[in-house]
Amino acid sequence: MRTLISTAFVSLDGVMEAPGGEPGYRNSGWTVDLVDFLPEAYEIKGREQGEAAALLLGRVSYEAFSPVWPDMEEFPEYRKMPKYVVSTTLTEDDLVTNWGETTILRSLDEVAALKETEGGPIIVHGSAALNRSLSDAGLIDRYHLLVFPLLLGAGKRLFSDTDKDAQKLRLVEHEAYANGIQKNVFDVVR
Known about the structure:
Blueprint: E1 4-11, H1 30-33, H2 43-51, E2 54-58, H3 59-65, H4 76-80, E3 83-86, E4 102-105, H5 108-115, E5 122-125, H6 128-136, E6 142-148, E7 169-176, E8 182-188
Parallel strand pairs: 1-5, 1-6, 2-3, 2-5, 3-4
Antiparallel strand pairs: 6-8, 7-8
């Protein structure tokens, strides 16, 4: 069984929307505009590329990342690994051709089936709605969170407000950086 890892930049109040400057959002660019850059705080991002065997995205994040990430020097490992997009509306014609093998999954059941296949970890970037659905369905095994010392108020949040049983997490790695960012890696306790 493969491990499904959710990785996110998140404000202290749980907002994950538009961290890098995506246009049209109230607090767009909050990770770069409001907190000093320290390379060591982002070490986990390079490690994720080396450890992941596949990339899972929701439609909105796929449409945002696919025109940019294939040509970015910062993401060389993602070019060659298989990608999966969870969407009920995308078609094969909507997929970019310069980013390697991409498969459209139509449901959370298909994500659950993917987790049952052989292979290494599957990492989820961005994808707020998908993250909430995966979490609510009990499909996420680990969280890699870079928590920023900000209260953003508005924006899409990493976790849903669904009325459900408590989910216990085990902190397996953590570090605080001089700029106030905290790295928290949690395994989901089953």
